[in-house]
Design a protein that fits this description.
The chain is an alpha+beta fold and 358 residues long. Helix content is 30%, strand content 28%. Strands 7, 8, 9, 10, 11 and 12 form a 6-stranded antiparallel β-sheet that branches. The protein binds guanosine-5'-diphosphate (GDP) and manganese (II) ion. The site of guanosine-5'-diphosphate has 16 residues, from strand 2, strand 7 and strand 10.
Length: 358
């Protein structure tokens, strides 16, 4: 389970890790009651990183600017996630930004502490030699000698407190990026915490965070459709989790990036397919790859469901189709005018990748 930044910072406070003064607001009128002096940082509370790049972190100097930022944030979404809560935080005068994290390192069966003086950026982009990595035997726990390479006492203290939090709350990750030096003290400007789902039953004290679904994923769940949004621009429709995954793999091979995947599973109801296809359209992929292997899900059932949507509302993007198995001829007859048929799986994946802009 992921925690929101504001929930993570509450835990930090409980464990003695310094955090900036902040409050969480949901409604405009709550801004009046904020007792923090300007300037503020206003941060979208969503369960994805890179908010600043996405415009989800705003710096404001007075109430009018805050009001404007509030409405901008409320009106936008970040990577498909709607913004409900906004954290209003005292702005810090940042001198330095560090990265610090503790993760559960399953491959080494240990905890891993990572620290870098080059924080505030995506840690994947930081050169390896600029990251201090210390493996911690969980039976021994964090000891002073582990912190020898962190030459700053205050940061070492933060690391110890993070470790206490990490172990007592059964975390998979506790990350502060950036941990900052501001007004001559060390303070956590961000918070990312992942709790091991298998241990949640031991932590009734923790807030319950709903799984982080996008709006479309939520809608799909209500309709009982297996629908996942990813980072790319190719919409994949297949039947069965195995074929769906194999299709994504094949796209990868040709440089294509799956944007949505929709697993029709085993259905023989054209109406269900219609609903699923409508959702796919709403996700606005650049190209759709329909990859069917008919069995329990008959090819013509899917074709009827797709055709119903095409007749009713048309489609803006190309649809590449590879249709094999039970009733494939009927299916192709129904759809032949509306899409580009491909005879092989890989040909289809290649074509879709090309149309996806690679
Ligand atoms: P993220 O983009 O989702 O990781 O959000 P962060 O909370 O890490 O904020 C992104 C960046 O905004 C940080 O790396 C800082 O550079 C900057 N930032 C955050 N809080 C403050 C603040 O109080 N003052 C200043 N000057 N910059 C801040
Ligand atoms: Mn951050």
């Amino acid at each position: 389970m992921k925690l929101y930044e504001y929930q993570g910072k509450e835990l930090f406070s409980q464990y003695g890790i310094p955090v900036p003064k902040s409050v969480v607001v949901e409604k405009e009128k709550e801004l009046d009651r904020v007792q923090i002096s300007f300037p503020w940082v206003m941060k979208a509370q969503v369960l994805v990183g890179g908010r600043k790049k996405a415009g989800g972190v705003k710096f404001v100097n007075n109430y009018d600017e805050a009001l404007k930022a509030f409405h901008e944030l409320k009106g936008m979404d970040i990577k498909g996630y709607k913004i409900e809560k906004i954290m209003v935080e005292e702005s810090l005068e940042i001198k330095e930004e560090y990265y610090i994290s503790i993760i559960l390192d399953r491959s080494r069966r240990s905890h891993l502490l990572m620290f870098s003086k080059e924080g505030g950026v995506d840690i994947e982009g930081v050169a390896d030699e600029k990251i201090v990595k210390v493996s911690i035997n969980p039976l021994i726990g964090l000891q002073n000698f582990h912190l020898r390479n962190i030459r700053n006492n205050e940061i070492a203290t933060v690391a110890k407190k993070m470790y206490a939090l990490f172990t007592s709350k059964d975390c998979e990750l506790v990350e502060i990026n950036p941990l900052v030096l501001a007004n001559d003290t060390i303070i956590a400007a961000d918070a990312k915490i992942l709790i091991d789902d298998g241990a949640l039953y031991r932590h009734q004290e923790l807030p319950k965070v709903e799984e982080d679904f996008t709006e479309l994923e939520r809608e799909a769940r209500e309709k009982g459709i297996a629908f996942v949004q990813l980072g790319g621009n190719i919409g994949v429709i297949a039947n069965g989790a195995g074929l769906t995954m194999a299709t994504l793999d094949a796209l990868n091979e040709y440089g294509g990036k799956g944007g949505v995947f929709l697993d029709l599973g085993g259905t023989d109801d054209p109406e269900k397919v219609t609903q699923a296809f409508r959702l796919m359209k709403k996700a606005r992929p650049q190209v759709i790859l329909l990859n069917l292997f008919g069995g329990i899900t008959k090819c013509d059932t899917v074709a009827k469901g797709v055709k119903a949507v095409l007749d009713e509302e048309g489609i803006e993007c190309p649809v590449i189709a590879r249709i094999k198995g039970m009733n494939e001829e009927e299916a192709m007859n129904i759809l032949k005018e509306s899409l580009t048929p491909m005879s092989s799986f890989h040909e289809a994946a290649k074509k879709a990748s090309e149309l996806g802009g690679v």
